[in-house]
Amino acid sequence: MQNWQTYRAELCSQLKRQGISEPVLRVCSHLPRHLFAPELNLEQAYADRAMPLGHGQTISQPSLVARMTELLELSGQERVLEIGTGSGYQTAFLAYLAREVFTLERISELSYQAAKLLLEQGLRNIHFKIGDGYLGWAEQAPFDRILLTAAPPQLPEALLGQLAEGGLLVGPVGPQYEVQKLLRVRRRAQKLEYESCGDVVFVPMLKGL
Length: 209
Prior knowledge:
It is an enzyme of class 2 (transferase). This is Protein-L-isoaspartate O-methyltransferase. This protein is 33% helix and 28% strand. The chain is an alpha/beta fold. The protein has one domain: Vaccinia Virus protein VP39 (Rossmann fold, 3-Layer(aba) Sandwich). The strands form 2 sheets. It has a 7-stranded mixed beta sheet.
C-alpha cells in the first residue's frame, strides 16, 4: 500500500505535466492534503478531483486550486482576501505565496478546523474571520488580491469595492450547481477589466451566517 508521500508526489507530477508553475508545485509538494480532508482515504485525498467536505461544501480539485492561485499572479508582497476558507487547503497556497492572507468563512466549525490545521503547518500570516462573504472584510480593505472559492450569481459590489488599484479578483460566477465562468477582474485606472478563464462548477456562495 502506498504511503501519503507517494500519493502526493504522484499528484505533483500530474500537476507538473499540466504546466503548473514551479512556485505553485513547491507548495503542493509541502502540503499534506489528506489532513485537510481527514474523512477521505489517501487515494481520494490526493486524486485530482473535488471531494465532499461536509456542511454542503467541497475541497476543490488540486489542479483548479493551482490554476486559480496562478491567476492571482502572486509575487509575495500581496495582501489577499479569500472568500470561503473551507478546508484551508487553498488558504495554505495563498499563505505560502503572499505576504498576508485574510480568510473569511460563514461556517464557524470549518473556520476553527482550518485555523487549527494551518497553525499546525506553521503558517502564521493568516487572519481568520467568521462572516458573510458578500460583505467582504471592509476593516482590512483594500486588498491587492481577492479569491472566491464559491460561486455567487454575480460579483458582489462590496468585494469589487475592496479591490485595490492594480489588484486582481479571481473567482467563479454563475448559477447554482450549473456551469459557471471562472473570471479574473483587474482594477486599472479606476476601471474594471473582466477576463473569462474557462468553465467551472463550484458550490454556491451563500449569504448570511
